[in-house]
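Customer escalation, tier 2.

The customer says the design service returned an amino acid string that "doesn't look like it belongs to this structure." They asked us to rerun it and document both sides in this ticket. The original structure tokens are below, unchanged.
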């Protein structure tokens, strides 16, 4: 595997860290700016909405830009956003910094996947893409907990400066190690947009918004929930985030393993179980052991939906998957934004710190309903055209896509 993949993985590590670390630092940021925790939750919502807008926008803008140069520009944007967040004198300025950083998120993973695959022989493409996305996975196990610990002990601003430094490291690595690649030719936006006329693509994206939103409804407010309800010390949040990250890694592997074998059944099981576990979290959040176990399960079940959902979009938009894939990364973050906002509403309404768990359960259950509708439509189409849907949908996605999708959250 070429060293260029390490540069991409470092960039992915920085992006993954900045997306999730804010959840462990909400109380510190809220106290510093004199705002409520639900208001501070807009830092999660703002980032997520920036990914939603930035994924298609930056992908379209970068279609005719050489890929190495586009990756460097995206890392520059990411660095600027994190420096602005770290130095922000007011809450509104920090929110702007979060949005600036988020604009790089979706396009970096989309273009980075293409670059990673182009650096190796055809039979090694899946491994190359998976290696790049390892940076994102490791961010949730190492970067986020360490960033939370740094923020709680030395100040949250230092955390964002460290993340910006990671971005500089990734930018220098891309400049030094990634070879010059030819400008993409023959790409037509009209062809890419045609995928959005497919009802199954739209259903898959709606499942992404609601299903992954269920995870973020609970996890956005994990710090106040665990300290005020379960009775954990502030410093224990770091280890809870490690548990959540380990759950994510396990769920990713399980979801990736079964996405090719039985995609829709995998979605039914993971979304249904996620809805149940989120509802149960309302009760288990009152004990330390119960809360810790449930946090792992939420990470695992939430991320077990990611590979099948991403692969579903790639399969259904097989003719022109680039923009659809980038938009689906945005859809994960639209779910994050929706859930963070709704979770803040129920807390602000005085329903208690565990109320966001009910919001998450309702979102996951709604995603399950859409999955059942999608499956029923597919069976009906297969019955009408026996030679058509079955084979292409089960295995129509490119062999490279499944590992890449398995590692994206998101987030990715």
């Amino acid at each position: 595997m070429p060293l260029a993949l390490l540069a991409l993985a470092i960039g992915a590590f920085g992006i993954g860290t900045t997306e999730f670390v804010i959840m462990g630092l909400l109380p510190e940021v809220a106290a510093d700016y004199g705002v409520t925790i639900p208001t501070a939750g807009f830092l999660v919502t703002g980032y997520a909405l920036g990914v939603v807008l930035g994924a298609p926008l930056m992908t379209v803008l970068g279609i005719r830009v050489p890929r190495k140069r586009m990756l460097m520009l995206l890392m520059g944007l990411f660095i600027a956003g994190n420096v602005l967040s770290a130095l922000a004198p007011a809450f509104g300025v920090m929110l702007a910094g979060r949005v600036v950083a988020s604009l790089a998120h979706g396009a970096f993973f989309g273009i980075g996947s293409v670059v990673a695959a182009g650096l190796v022989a055809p039979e090694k493409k899946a491994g190359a893409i998976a290696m790049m996305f390892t940076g994102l996975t490791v961010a949730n196990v190492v970067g986020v907990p360490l960033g939370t610990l740094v923020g709680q002990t030395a100040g949250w601003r230092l955390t964002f400066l460290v993340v910006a430094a990671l971005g500089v490291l990734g930018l220098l690595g891309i400049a030094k190690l990634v070879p010059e690649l030819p400008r993409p030719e023959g790409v037509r936006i009209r062809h890419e947009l045609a995928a959005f006329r497919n009802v199954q693509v739209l259903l898959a994206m709606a499942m992404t918004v609601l299903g992954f939103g269920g995870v973020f409804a609970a996890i956005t407010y994990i710090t106040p929930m665990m300290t005020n309800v379960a009775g954990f010390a502030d410093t224990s949040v770091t280890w809870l985030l490690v548990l959540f990250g380990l759950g994510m890694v396990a769920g990713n592997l399980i979801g990736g393993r079964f996405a090719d074998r039985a995609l829709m059944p995998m979605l039914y099981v993971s979304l249904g179980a996620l809805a149940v576990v989120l509802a149960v979290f309302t009760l288990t959040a009152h004990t330390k052991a119960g809360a810790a176990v449930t946090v792992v399960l939420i990470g695992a079940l939430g991320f077990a939906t990611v590979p099948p959902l991403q692969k579903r979009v790639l399969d259904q938009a097989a003719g022109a998957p680039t923009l659809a894939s980038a938009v689906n990364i945005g859809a994960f973050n639209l779910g994050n934004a929706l859930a963070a906002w709704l979770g803040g509403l129920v807390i602000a309404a005085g329903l208690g710190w565990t109320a966001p768990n009910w919001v998450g359960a309702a979102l996951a259950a709604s995603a399950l309903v859409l999955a059942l509708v999608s499956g029923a439509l597919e069976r009906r189409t297969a019955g009408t055209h026996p030679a058509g849907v079955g084979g292409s949908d089960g295995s129509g996605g490119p062999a490279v896509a499944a590992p890449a999708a398995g590692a994206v959250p998101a987030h990715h």
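Tier 2 assessment: The sequence is consistent with the input. The radius of gyration is 20 Å. The CA atoms of residues 302 and 342 lie 18 Å apart. Sent an explanation to the customer and offered a walkthrough call.
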